[in-house]
Structure formats: structure tokens, C-alpha cells
Amino acid sequence: MAQKVGFIGVGIMGKPMAGQLITAGHTVYVYDRAEAPVQELVKSGAVACTSAAEVAGKAELIFLMLPDTPDVEEALFGQNGVASGVRSGSIVVDMSSISPIPTREFARKLEGMGVEMLDAPVSGGQIGAQNATLSIMVGGKAQIFDRVKPFFELMGKNIVLIGGNGDGQVCKVANQVVVALTLEAVSEALVMASKAGTDVAKVREALLGGFAQSKILEVHGERMIKRTFAPGFRVRLHQKDLNIALQTARNLGVSMPNTATAQELFNSLAADGGADLDHSSMIKALEKMANHAIGKDKNADKK
Ligand code: NAD
Q1: Model confidence over 101-144: pLDDT tens digits?
Q2: What pTM value is reported for the model?
Q3: Tens-place pLDDT, residues 245-285
Q4: What is the 129 CA–ligand 1 centroid distance (Å)?
Q5: Given CA atoms 203, 264, 177, 16 in this order, what sign does their dihedral have?
């Protein structure tokens, strides 16, 4: 049955995700600080709102897809935020990748207003959002998960209730560690193979058939070779995720030495003007250290 739903944050991920809800026939109230993506969604049938509070006043199921923890806090509890327009009995679903501990505080605060919350970060990138094949890692109460699941099924395929509030975010942190370290492994292997004079496209092709196979080798390995570094997933967002990982590790008394190294490579890349490139550009930091670029022309990177 068609419902009124809200969507706050319609950037690289949020725009196609909100688009899936519109295609399914729901009335989608959208808000983003930026005008352009809201207007694009209006052309496909969305209703534009001028604040998060207005979205919350019109829809009882409100999705958020924002960059970082302070953005979610502002959209929920800041001036003209969700909290100032929301009705008791509504459900807030935060699909952004943010820190697990504040997530638990946000859920407690909303519960005090009679509002339920799920954290539901995703994996699968822009392509997964466009094809509705995202993995969705959910934290919150089972009965709330069951109510929102039909909407998750419009955006993703592998939808798992991990545990209580914040546990979806913990799972996403684990995901981002694996992705960063795999990016590093693929980058190191391709730079080494290229400097040895070997055809890296052939190396990738061969590795895709064995134990070194991974989605990162397939998708990001191709981007590295073809030098297509337009985001995708921005370096600055992966830095944010590894920061959450390293802070969480410190709080828990866990050592994550290779996560720290991956973060240093992103730091170097960002310092070199790469913060808004796709994270597959991590290879550029390693190329600099090897004084060797795997493309024929290191100035040929497509932005
Ligand atoms: P993005 O920067 O493309 O989009 C974020 C949008 O939020 C922007 O349009 C921005 O204007 C808006 N925004 C920021 N603060 C706001 C506020 N207070 N109120 C209203 N709008 C606000 O980012 P993205 O790539 O879509 O990523 C969103 C989240 O999804 C991040 O947490 C990211 O880590 C996560 N994620 C991204 C990918 C990916 O491949 N891009 C994959 C998985 C998860």
C-alpha cells in the first residue's frame, strides 16, 4: 500500500534510494541542504520540503542518508530538525554510516518523544543504490525492523537485523575496515606488478579466478587500471569511517594496525587534493611511494 515517507539527504546514495521508493508508488517528501538533487527528484514525483521538520510533519516513516554523525545530529535535533516536527508513533531510519555510540544516544532521545529509531547503514555503493541491491545492516527492535523491512526490500537485497540500536553501525564499521584493507592489498599488488613491467589488466583478470578474487578487485581494480576516480565513494567519507573504527578500537582496547596504515594512505591522498576522489584512488598514494604510476600517463586520470 502506498505510504507517505520522508527522505533527508539525497546525495550520491540518497537520491537513487529515494528514487526506488518513488518508483514503488510511495509519496516521498524530500529535504536536502542542496537544491539540485531535490529538484531532480521532484521531476520524478517527489515532494520538496524546506526543512527536516517539514518532512517529519508530513511523513511518519523518515529515512536519513547524510554524511557524518554531526550531520545526523543536526538533522534530528538541530534548528528545524526532525525532532521539532515529528509526531509520536513515527519511525526514524538512519541509513547513514555514523558512529555507533551517538547512534544509541539518538535512539534513546527519540524514544523519549515516542519515536522509534533503526540504524540501517548500507554497503554496495552507488551501483547498489541504483540497482536496489544494497546490503543493509540493521540495529533496533525486531518489531520495528519487521515494519520497515518492505521498504528496505525496495532498496536492497541482503537485509540483516544485526542486533539492538547501534549494532548496525558496528557492523558497517567492520565492513569499512575490510573494504579499506582490500583496497590497500589490491593497490599494492597492482603497483608492484606494473613496476615489474607486467600487464596489470591481465593480472587483474587472472586474479579474479582464484582466492584473491573480491568485489574490490573486480570493481575498484578496474577503476584503478582505467583511472576513473570520479566518486563513487569519496575518500573523505572513508576517512570518516576509519576514524570511527580507530576510535572504537581505542575505546575497546583493540589494536587495528593495518586500519591505521590504510587511514594514513587516505590522509596522504587527501593532503594531495584527493579528498573528493573515489576511494579506489588510494592507489595514487602508493604510486607516489613507489615513484611509479600504473597508467601509461599519470596525468591522464579521469576526474
Ligand atoms: P553525499 O555527500 O553524496 O550526500 C550527502 C547529502 O547530504 C548531500 O546532498 C548533502 O547536501 C546532504 N546534507 C548534509 N548535511 C545535511 C543536513 N544537515 N541536512 C540536510 N541535508 C544534508 O554522500 P553519500 O555518498 O550519499 O553518502 C551518504 C552516507 O552513506 C555516508 O554516511 C556514507 O558514508 C554512506 N555510504 C556511502 C556509499 C557510497 O558509495 N557513496 C556507500 C555506502 C555508504
Answers
A1: 999 999 999 999 999 999 999 999 999 999 999 999 999 999 99
A2: 0.94
A3: 999 999 999 999 999 999 999 999 999 999 999 999 999 99
A4: 12
A5: negative
Residue to mutate, 10, 13, 169, ligand 1, most ligand atoms under 8 Å from C-beta: 13
Distance 234 CA to ligand 1 centre (A): 10
Helix (H, G, I), strand (E, B) or coil at 74: helix
Query: Is 172 a catalytic site residue?
Result: yes
Cα separation of 38 and 8, whole Å?
Answer: 10
How far apart are the CA of 14 and the centre of ligand 1, in A? 7
Atom of ligand 1 nearest to the CA of 97: 32
Find the Cα–Cα–Cα–Cα dihedral 17, 281, 179, 75, rounded to 10°: -40
